[in-house]
Amino acid sequence: MTVTVDAVVVGGGQAGLAVGRELQRRGRSFVVLDRETEVGAVWRRRWDSLRLFTPAGFTHLPGLELDAPPDSSPTKDEMADHLVAYVRRFALPVESATTVAAVDRDGERLRVTAVDGRGWRARDVVLATGSHGRPDVPGFAADLDPAIARLHSRDYRRPAQLPDGAVLVVGAGNSGAEIAVDLARAGREVWLSGRDVGHMPRLGSRTYPILRALGRPGAVLARRRLRGGGDPLGRIRPGDLESAGVRRVPRTLGARDGLPVFDGGSTARVAAVVWCTGLRPDHGFVALPVHGADGRLLHRRGITTVPGLYAVGQPYQSSITSHLVGGVGTDARHVVDHLVRRDIR
């Protein structure tokens, strides 16, 4: 059976819910499709000790504040609870356990097909699955000794998942630093491999709206500065790694005799490796010409070259805060403004 609506939102995380609320405010018929079995499930699956580096006073969706002190660091479960409360507060039509198999053209409309055969026709489709879909693991991972346990940060929950012995965390960005400290505080020997990405100054809840207001120029400047590196550390402060007992080592470049090899040629005998090497976009279900050579969506502030196809939740989409919980609302509003103007032409 195919259902016709004004718009389909693919993805039921913070970006998708922000878009849904904007569509609701404009009186559009829509549905939010989410592959998870319940709202907030992605947040609940993150590691137990995770706290966001953005303050609670900024880290909330439009129209509903987070129930926490404004300058506190929200936990991952507080974020999941916030998404659940948002859906309930505004009665957003979320179809959970719905994995999208394809988005393609059907005459003058777009067609969205789920893996279970259900379908939707809409004038507009908003992709709100973000840019973090599939774990990005280096090719040399297959050359490591099979006895070395391996886990991607997406699947890391707690130190007890890993066997006894030293742990190598590959990737020294925010996830890598947080997981390294989590392991070290549990008494594990931890090696953190990767470039020093620097640290953000501690920013309060009033600062992030200023970063958001810098808009596109701020995003361009930030991306130029970060080219070839990762985002600076947010919640982990200078000295936290050292005080926790984490050992910093150079980048991991390959494997030799089953052992990880660092820049400079040295190796390490470890019992486990945690890959904190990021995630790649996963928009292969979009059967339309909107993909760059690296698989990322081609768009300008969320507007693609395919009429009616949009995106929200992409890193630096319109500002430094575009991929943060407190930043998706601005992009959702911009995209819905555009599709409403297009609909009335």
From TrEMBL:
Gene3D superfamilies: FAD/NAD(P)-binding domain. Keywords: Monooxygenase, Oxidoreductase. InterPro entries: Auxin_biosynth/cation_transpt (IPR050982), FAD/NAD-bd_sf (IPR036188). One of its GO terms (molecular function) is flavin adenine dinucleotide binding. PANTHER family: FLAVIN-BINDING MONOOXYGENASE-LIKE PROTEIN (AFU_ORTHOLOGUE AFUA_4G09220), FLAVIN-CONTAINING MONOOXYGENASE. This is Monooxygenase. It comes from Pseudonocardia hydrocarbonoxydans. The lineage of its organism: Bacteria, Bacillati, Actinomycetota, Actinomycetes, Pseudonocardiales.
